[in-house]
Every structure is written in structure tokens, then in C-alpha cells.
Amino acid sequence: MYLMDLIGCLEPREHTNGSMVRHLRSTGALTTDAAAEAMLAVDRADYLGHADPQLNYSDMPIKLGVVHLSAPSIYASALEALQVVPGCSFLHVGSGTGYFSTIVAKLAGPHTVNHGVEQNGELIERARTLAARRTDAHNLEFFHANAMQLHIEPESCAAADGGQQPPAERRADDEDDDDACCMKYDRIYVAAAALPEHRRFFKLLRQGGVLVGPFEAVARDGRLAGHQSLVRVVRTGADTFVETRLQPVQFAPLRQPSSAELAAMPRLALAPLVWCPHRHGRFPPKFRAAVRHLLWLASVDACHLSRLPRELLLRTIAQIPFYAFEAAPAHGGGPSTSALHAHAVHLVAHGRADGGRHDGGRHD
What we know:
alpha/beta, 11 helices, 9 strands, globular, two-stranded antiparallel ribbon
């Protein structure tokens, strides 16, 4: 009780999600209105499942059984460092009950990818259940896997998903030739202490993308220094990254499987979305505008696209990469919608849109 009494002296007597956010604003952990509004919109208590409001909203880490949430101030610092803007794709390594993924979704919006990877099956089910209860979290997807199963290198790309997805689902993101088989993300948060070998996660960033997470410090002799820092990483080129230490932290470590365990685990390849009419709403605004433009052209009798079978046209659109019309959000810009017209014509001319088939397959 002494600890809780002390916390009560340091924080407001009111214990609500709103008072928690106001406290984070007053201490400077939250500095922007957008981040504060996102944290206000996602009630921390829902993701803890605990009845004590003082415990739910105190600025301290909480571990209740398999549920483990960082202190709100840590989430606030990470959120501000990520600088999430609408349209950002997001990967959460160690997503737990989905609390932080849901907060990021409030900033990134529904028209993008939001992936979580979590090794605990019970937490995966909780995260999916909590996301299903919300009307603003339909694009959250949670995958049951250890982070080391993430398929980052290209060697076994073709078999990375065990052949369970259709070939189009394994289509490359083509942004970098050296590791194009994996989806790249605009923002990544690592929720447990990472070792030097976990720097491999940096390769999952798009150029201009940002990763934030706790990393074990390394001494000059290459050994672990015995302390951790919250680190912000920006990918500036194919193999160049700029790292900034934000603050000292103390996180539980990412679980590192043994070599034998890792060899027995299937690889997890998080492929980019492939367009179809049912997924149209999850694509970026410029992509959706470009698709509308192309479908309108196909409805104009004077346009040569109107002579294409509709099924062939839809298959052609499905070949367009998720990020075809979006620059990295930090930089803005992107190709014009008319580029889709030229891209579609190119694909049809080279026979890539349907592999020579005109039998009207499914797209869902």
C-alpha cells in the first residue's frame, strides 16, 4: 500500500483515462494534441481487465498474469517519437493485448495496414476480441508468432508462407531489391528489449520510415553494457539508418528461441495487401482515387480500356503495389493518379494481369 499511496501523492486523485492523459500532458510526456487525443480515445483499463482504477491509470508498468503493459509515459514517449500520420502502415513487435496498436490506429486511420506480432496465444485472442468490439479497428491484424520468425531476408521468400496464400499474396513490395519479398512499414514499435541481432527489424522499414523500441546498449568491446535505451531509428537508404537514443528504460527482453527451436518454427511472411473490391477501403487514399479514375476510364466507350474484359481489368489493378501512389508519409507526395492508367496498360500489354486466363476467378 505504501507504493500506491506514494503514487497517489504524485498523481491526480481522480483515476480515469482522461486524468491519465492530462497527467501525461502536464509532465511533457505527451506534447501534441493528436497523440493526446489518440490515447484518450483508447481506454487503458479495457486492455488490462482489472477493476482497480488507480492501478489501471497510474503511470507505472503493470503485469497481471500474461498481460503486461508499459507505463503510460513510455507509450506516450514512443508515440511522439514515431510521429504517426494518416496513412502510415504500422508493425507492432510484441503487440500483447493490442493497446498500443489501437492507439496508433487512431492516428494512422483505417485506410492502411496495422499488424501485430505476439508469441502468446492467449494475448492474441484477447487482442482480436478487443479489436472486434471497436468500430475503428477493423484493419488491425494480429499474428501468433515469435518475432524471430519474421521473414526479413529473401532466401526462402517463395516458400515463406507455406504455399497457403495464392501467388499474388506473395508478390514483392519491390521497394528494395535486396529484401523485396517482405512488406515494409512506415512505422514499427518494438515492445520488448532487443539485442544487437534484432537490428534485423530495421530492414522492415520503408525508406524514410521510423522504428522506436528499447535496445540493449553495447559497450565498445562489443559486449552488452548492462543497460537499455529507448531508441528511435530512421531508415535513410537501402542500408543506412540514423539512430537516436531517447531515454533510459528497463524492459523485459524479447524471447530469443534456441537455434533448434528457431529451425523448427515456420517463417512468417507478412505480405502487403493485394487489391480486390472487398479490400478497396483499406488502401491509401491516392490508390483508391487512382482505381476510381481507371474504372471511370473503362466505362467511357471512346477509351481503349473499355474494350478490356472487366475481370482482366480487376486482375490488372491487383498487380499494382500497395504503395504505388504513396511516398513515405514523412515526405509526402507521390505519383499522380494518371500513372495507374499507364501502369495498367503496361501490365496488360505484357500479359501479367491474368497469366493468359480469362476465366473470371475470385478476388476475395
